[in-house]
Amino acid sequence: MPVSHEVQCPMPGTFYRRSSPDAPPYKEEGDRVEPGDVLGLVEVMKQFSEVTAEVSGVITAFLAPDGDPVDPGQTLATIQVD
Length: 82
Description:
Layout: E1 3-8, E2 13-16, E3 32-33, E4 38-44, E5 47-52, E6 57-62, E7 69-70, E8 75-81
Antiparallel strand pairs: 1-8, 2-4, 2-7, 3-6, 4-5, 6-8
C-alpha cells in the first residue's frame, strides 16, 4: 500500500508555487521529488522561506493554491513516498 506524506506549512503567510509571477512553478503534480527539492515559498512581510520536500516520491496534489494565505500546520502538498 502506498504511503502518503503531507508537506505542512511552517508559518503563517502567503504560499507561492513559483519564484516570480512569470516563472514556471517549482514543481507540478506528478513530478518526482527528492529531499530538499523546493516545492514553493511562504512569504511573510516580504521575507520568503522555501518549503522543501522531506521525502522522495511523486507529488500527488497541491492543496494550497498559488497566492493563497496559509496557516502553520496546513497541508500544502502530498507526496506518494517511494
